[in-house]
Amino acid sequence: MLSKDGSGTHNTVQEAVNAAPENGNGKKFVIRIKAGVYEETVRIPLAKKNVVFLGDGIGKTVITGSSNVGRLGMTPYTMATVAVLADGFMASGLTIQNTAGPGAAQAVAFRSGSDLSVIENCEFLGNQDTLYAHSLRQLYKSCRIQGNVDFIFGNSASFFQDCQIFVAPRQVNPEKGEDNAVTAHGRTDPGQSTGFVFQNSLIDGTEEYLKLYHSNPKVHNTFLGRPWKEYSRTVFIQCKLGDLISPLGWKPWDDAGFALKTLYYGESGNTGSGSTTSQRVTWSTQIPAQHIDTYSVENFIQGD
Q1: How far apart are CA 145 and CA 170, in angstroms?
Q2: Burial 163-172 (b: 16+ CB within 10 A, else e)
Q3: What pLDDT was estimated at residue 173?
Q4: Contacts with 65 (C-beta within 8 Å, 6 or more apart), sequence order
Q5: How far apart are CA 301 and CA 282, in angstroms?
Q6: Active-site residue flag, 304
Q7: Looking at residue 72, what is its pLDDT?
Q8: Do residues 221 and 281 make contact, with C-beta atoms less than 8 angstroms apart?
Q9: Distance CA 247, CA 260 (A)
Q10: Which of 33, 53, 192 is closest to 117 using CA atoms?
Q11: Average pLDDT per run of 10 along the chain, which is 304 residues long?
Q12: Could you report how far apart the first and last alpha carbons of the chain are, in Å?
């Protein structure tokens, strides 16, 4: 256990991670993180399997940092406030954030390459590139994720179930308008079993962003995703899509039409004013009923 008042066995999250046994010994190593703001960079290396972060709740237990691409030598892979390589990571009841600000460009809050990881009742706050779901199989359950530019990205097989996804204002002076993309999946080969699945989740804007949007909808555009890599794959199933979602649904990566013939962007059974499909781009699809089971937790990430 760790605590800001010094009553725990460790003073920092990283100290507690360092105390975890190598390779997990087949058991979960639970780190109880009491309420407080922990200003630090946390790394869970490959050998520290089965680590569990158990906080006191969203907004109560907060791990925070501000590293961004503007700092010398920083890349999206190295700048995360919390980064996990070890398999079997779990977390519940905490906020992970990057406070670099809307003008700082890429600024990752959380990066994960943890296979069979489960994140539940957690919050991820940032702007551009908030959550880097880098690789392998990940489940996000009842989480809150906030950002604006490509703020859920990576080449993992990730399932987002019962989550709340919120777009925040992008620029320091956001009134002039912008194009936002919720996702930027990075599948590089059609043989990879990766992709993002959103099921029974809400896609909407923060209160501040919705005020901007409703004041001038024509200049504030939000898209479900755009293709970071050639075989980008993302689907939204039984989600509620707010009116901030562009009628086009999806955004090209560039003017040259990169990846539009090789990506897979699908929708099925969505509701809300942003779910109308009559003006969707021609390179997206409505998922056939017989293919919906492909995108279940059991089939897509082999979850039990």
Answers
A1: 15
A2: bbbbbbbbee
A3: 82
A4: 39, 40, 41, 80, 81, 97, 98, 99, 109
A5: 28
A6: no
A7: 63
A8: no
A9: 18
A10: 53
A11: 82 95 88 97 97 98 94 87 98 97 90 98 97 98 97 98 96 87 98 98 97 95 98 98 98 97 98 97 97 97 93
A12: 29
217 Cβ contact list (under 8 Å, min separation 6): none
* Per-residue pLDDT, 157: 98
- What is the phi/psi pair of residue 217, to 5°? -60, -25
Q: Which residue has the tokens 């990881």?
A: 117
Match 């279940």 to its residue by tokens: 296
Catalytic member of 5, 87, 115, 150 = 150
150 is catalytic: yes
CA distance 154 to 82: 15
Which amino acid, 246?
S
Q: Spell out the residues 6+ positions from residue 24 whose beta carbon is closer than 8 angstroms to its own.
A: 48, 49, 50, 51, 86, 88
**Quick one: pLDDT at residue 156?**
98
Q: Which residue has the tokens 């630090």?
A: 40
**Beta bridge partner(s), residue 186:** none
Residue of 5, 56, 115, 129 marked catalytic:
129
130 with 147: CB under 8 angstroms? yes
Neighbours of 192 (CB within 10 A): 15
Secondary structure of 48-107 as H, E, C letters? CCCEEEEECCCCCEEEEECCCCCCCCCCCCCCCCEEECCCCCEEEEEEEEECCCCCCCEC
Residue with tokens 């993180």, as numbered in its chain:
33
For residue 263, give the nearest of 234, 243, 238, 237 by alpha carbon: 234
